[in-house]
Design brief:
109 residues; mainly alpha
């Protein structure tokens, strides 16, 4: 490899980092000093729950041929994790329950 190739790779990596970083940080910087209406604040409060739900459901469903199917192992991990989340409302306990349940079930099955 020559020096030009190395520089182009570095520039590509920096550009990819900027494209990833800017859309994630720019909205926070823009609205940080704004006073948003209560309705918009309430609407925005649902975004993390919606995104997390989409990620979880995506993990619970797998493709079996042309038909979606439920992934039993992931459901078995999700059930105790959800119960701990609802009971304790503690993020650390929820995450640890999910990790331990996944490890134990993967060892057994």
């Amino acid at each position: 490899m020559n020096r030009e190739t190395d520089l182009s790779v570095v520039l590509l990596i920096l550009a990819c980092a900027a494209v990833t970083f800017v859309p994630r940080i720019l909205p926070f910087v823009v609205v940080r000093n704004l006073s948003l209406p209560r309705a918009i604040q309430k609407w925005l409060s649902y975004v993390p729950v919606c995104l997390l739900t989409a990620l979880i459901v995506q993990g619970l469903i797998r493709k079996a041929g042309d038909v979606p199917a439920v992934d039993g192992l992931n459901v078995a991990v999700a059930v105790p994790t959800l119960l701990v989340a609802l009971k304790t409302n503690n993020l650390l306990a929820t995450v640890l329950t999910g990790i331990v349940a996944a490890a134990l079930l993967r060892i057994v099955f």
